[in-house]
Write a structure and sequence with these properties.
Layout (H helix, E strand, L loop, with lengths): L2 E6 L5 H13 L8 E7 L4 E7 L13 E2 L5 E9 L2 H10 L11 H12 L1 H7 L2 E9 L4 E6 L8 E5 L6 E5 L2 H5 L10 H5 L3
Antiparallel strand pairs: 1-3, 1-9, 2-3, 4-5, 5-6, 6-7, 8-9
Helix pairs in contact: 2-3, 3-4
Length: 194
């Protein structure tokens, strides 16, 4: 079990974004006690954080957030891709394999994203997972989960106007650690319960 967290749309500087992201990932420390990492692009207002429980590749080559060899995609990932070695074989036989840096399923996903795109890679993937990937070229954040939703992924918009931020995390407590998080009770919705 690992933990992912992050946000999109923050206008804070890098130091401020790093401190906020650190609070978010600290809330997930129990999900990944082995390591933590963060990747921030303050210019685009995107921050990706990860708490690691080392399972598939125990070396530093499996650390996250992880960038693809091309540099186009940056990924935080929780789960396991059961067919990642088969995906690697397909990439090698089709001439799309990068110079592998390690043996992690995270790296296999990133190579697939570069070769086939995000959607096609996910369609080829068998496993249990939740992820967030930033496409630097398209300036687009994509969240994904396995078909059965085995791995949790919470997300939503917070704030208003220029302070609106999209938050995501493996647990609600990660979102709660962001300063824009607000969770007022909707009295109208509450009245609908009988």
């Amino acid at each position: 079990m690992c933990g992912v967290a992050g946000f999109l749309g923050s206008t804070a500087d890098r130091a401020g974004a790093s401190a906020v992201l650190q609070r978010m990932t600290n809330a997930l420390q129990h999900r990944g006690p082995d390591a933590q990492g963060q990747w921030i692009d303050a210019g685009d207002g995107v921050a990706l954080g990860h708490r690691r429980l080392s399972v598939v590749d125990l070396s530093p080559a499996g650390a996250q957030p992880m960038a693809s060899v091309s540099g186009r995609h940056v990924l935080v990932f929780n789960g396991e891709i059961y067919n990642h070695l088969a995906l690697r074989s397909i990439l090698v036989s089709s001439g799309h394999a990068p110079a592998w840096r390690g043996h992690s399923d995270t790296e296999s996903l990133l190579a697939g994203f570069d070769a086939w795109g995000i959607r096609t890679t996910v369609e080829k993937t068998v496993g249990m997972f939740a992820f967030a990937v930033w496409d630097k070229q398209e300036q687009k954040l994509t969240l994904g989960r396995d078909r059965l939703g085995e791995k949790p992924l919470y997300y939503g918009w917070q704030g208003a106007g220029q302070d609106v931020v999209f938050l995501f995390g493996s647990e609600l407590k990660a979102l709660r650690a962001h300063p824009t998080f607000s969770a007022p009770v909707s009295r109208d919705a509450l009245c609908l319960y009988s």
